[in-house]
Specification:
mainly alpha; 279 residues; 10 helices; Four Helix Bundle (Hemerythrin (Met), subunit A)
Amino acid sequence: MIKPLLFIGLFMLLLTSGTTQAGSEQITLKMPPASLAQWYKPENKRQVWLHTMFRLRREMQAVKEYARQKDAIGTKKWGQRLAKSYRSIPEMVPEWKGEVRLDWADTLEIAAQQGNFKKVLRAHDKLNASCNLCHQDFQTLAAALYRSPDFSGHKIAFKGRAVHYDRFMELLSNTLNRIKIAIEDQRPQIAKHALKQLKIQLQALGGNCSKCHQDEIPKERILGEATQKLLKGLEESIRNKQPKQAGRFLGKAAVAICARCHGVHRTLSDLKGVLVPVQ
């Protein structure tokens, strides 16, 4: 069941606006129509909605630039494309038929054909305003629902069994804390053993990246050579009984491994879990 919109609004306010004066602003975000899902993965492998939005943005820019330059050929060409793309919105998402301004799309196309640049720019601004209103209402939650990773069904192969993603993240966190505790309490044997376990866990985690990423670049950034140097420095500091140095290496490793990945994936993933809790 979807959580109350007020809660979602307050949550998103914290995410997007940093600080705000208490009691001065309340944000309510609308859930996008269910029919939008058919244009996103996994229902749509080509991500048609995203490509339509990217195309519209490009066409809006071209029309504005050519109209300002009073370039009749460019304005006509891109004006026709813009009108066609804009008209596809209610065809793809019928619930938004009342949100679009097809009259202004018609006006822009006709004005572009006539070389009436002033009228083209006015129609362009009207269409742009309609886009901004829709984005204000729906873009944030649409991104959270359809463009954020879903780890709910992920399992990681670890020690001969499939471990649920949430449980595996808990194991990683516990291991990192065990290393930190052992370093602080000057128990190097426990720290070394925990570090060995961490390396095994990270190797298993890295094997999961390819479920979404088609290349090795993200994995290299998180678990690559730079991270391996940090782990080696951590191991040497533990072996040489240098707790302060070991603590610094552990902190840097946590940023490189955990914070980098969480900064990309976790915020939207957590929000998606609020919007559509796993049954």
